[in-house]
Design brief:
Radius of gyration: 24 Å
Order of helices and strands: EEHHHHHHHHHHHHHHHHHHHHHHHHHHH
Helix content: 55-70%
Distance between the termini: 26 Å
Strand content: under 5%
């Protein structure tokens, strides 16, 4: 299968003319874009950029309009794509105002009324210097985003990035002030990354995770960049397992993307229980980022911490357990064997197939890992809509665990088989649309070549 079709031909005079693609070519481009959109949810950033650059114009158009674009893919398309890519993404009804759906964005906040008369009376009309603005953000951060946003809309000199970062390094700004600066400060991406270092603050503050969620939701950072810059390290682990609260938080697709990026950073620990235990022991007191912590744990170069470095962090143990490799469940029972076999045989209708898989998941006969390993074709296994139903189904979030388990297993299989090799990912993308077997068989075909018929 080709990567797409060139829609330009040349006449006998050498003049280029645009021709309409045939129905088969259009269908090929649509299906390849759909498969690439699902693959890119599991790929590191440099692979995402490489694969989108290899697509031809019709396939890129359908990719930008795809319903299942991940947050990182949208951010990278907006950052590195062409003006046509950005136009298609902006017109995508599933990518609203962020580029992701969520709480009001900068335009909505800018349309709100300005500073209240009480605020103007207490702090004055301005203009403020960078130092004065930082002092006001510290004093009035509170629990509401509206006040720091109103301050940023008041007259002030352009924010001096060096002064801002120096003040943040000396005494980290409160989460509400950081979120307001990300949202309306007009700061370069490098400055936004540095603001995600919270210093020695603990996670007991009010919704400390909002700046990280906001950075992804606005398209400032990808999940991989978030993992590379959030500090201290235990905050990155907690971002993969945020509590269910009201307000700004991860949607289920964003939650899976965050867990994929964190798991990628934790991959050097392999399945060694001693290294995972050391991670849980050292994470509360380590001031740096998670990738640095993991690298030093693997090398064994961490000094013994001070006595108070083992402070208890609520939720950290549960987050590490959810990310750690789990032992394979024992296979047993005729019903489970029949359920596994049924994954490779689609039923007469998609609705009947979905009802069957959901019933098996509810009864504990199948897990999300089983679906990824055994469901055929592989492109259906990667798309939860083919085994859980439409994304708008009212009980979709009740099935978060199978989705998280399926994404984690797909991450593991891709990491073991093709790692971070863009050429291998590209071969998977070209093979996936017409491949009738399971995902493990597809990866065997790509890595070992030839047919996989008859292999276990």
């Amino acid at each position: 299968m080709s990567a797409g079709t060139d829609v330009r031909t040349r006449t006998s005079t050498g003049k280029a003319v645009r021709t309409m693609p045939t129905a088969d070519e259009d269908r090929t481009s649509r299906r390849l874009a759909w498969c690439v959109a699902h693959l890119l949810r599991h790929a590191p950033d440099h692979v995402v950029t490489d694969l989108t650059g290899r697509l031809d114009a019709p396939t890129r158009k359908y990719l930008c309009r795809d319903e299942w674009l991940s947050a990182s893919t949208v951010t990278l398309l907006l950052r590195h794509g062409s003006p046509e890519d950005r136009q298609y993404v902006a017109r995508n009804p599933h990518v609203v105002g962020r580029p992701l759906p969520g709480l009001p964005g900068p335009a909505r906040y800018a349309a709100r009324p300005g500073p209240s008369p009480e605020l103007l009376l207490q702090i004055g009309p301005g203009p403020f210097s960078t130092d004065e603005l930082i002092a006001l953000l510290r004093q009035w951060h509170g629990r509401r985003l509206r006040v720091p946003l109103a301050m940023l809309r008041m007259r002030h000199v352009p924010i001096d990035a060096e002064v801002l970062l120096a003040e943040h390094a000396r005494d980290p700004l409160p989460p509400t002030a950081v979120e307001a600066l990300l949202l309306a400060g007009g700061l370069p991406r490098q400055v936004c990354q540095a603001l995600l270092d919270a210093g020695p603050q603990d996670t007991a503050g009010y919704r400390w995770y909002r700046p990280a969620v906001r950075a992804v939701r606005m398209g400032l950072l990808t999940f991989d960049e978030l993992v590379a810059h959030v500090a201290p390290a235990h905050r990155t682990l907690l971002l993969a397992q945020l509590p269910e609260t009201r307000g700004l938080r991860w949607a289920l697709p964003e939650r899976t993307g965050m867990r994929t990026a964190v798991s990628r950073a934790l991959r050097p620990l392999r399945d060694d229980p001693r290294l995972w235990a050391e991670l849980l022991r050292r994470a509360p007191g380590f001031p740096g980022t998670l990738p640095v912590l993991v690298a030093r744990i693997v090398r064994g170069t961490l000094p013994e911490p001070a006595g108070d470095a083992y402070a208890y962090v609520p939720g950290l143990a549960a987050a590490v357990r959810s990310l750690a490799p789990k032992a394979a469940e024992p296979v047993g029972g005729v019903e489970r064997e029949l359920a596994l076999a049924s994954l490779a045989v689609p039923m007469e209708s998609g609705e009947e197939d979905i009802r069957w898989v959901r019933d098996c998941l509810r009864r504990g006969l199948l897990t999300g890992e089983d679906v990824i390993r055994h469901k055929a074709p592989a492109c259906w296994a990667l798309d939860e809509d083919h085994w859980l139903g439409d994304v708008s189904h009212p009980d979709r979030h009740d099935w978060a665990e199978p989705v998280l388990a399926a994404r984690a297993e797909a991450d593991r299989l891709f990491a073991l088989a093709i790692g971070a090799d863009p050429d291998a990912w590209w071969q998977v993308a070209l093979t996936l649309p017409d491949f009738a077997g399971t995902l493990p068989h597809l990866l065997l075909r790509v890595t070992e070549g030839g047919s996989v018929s008859g292999r276990s």
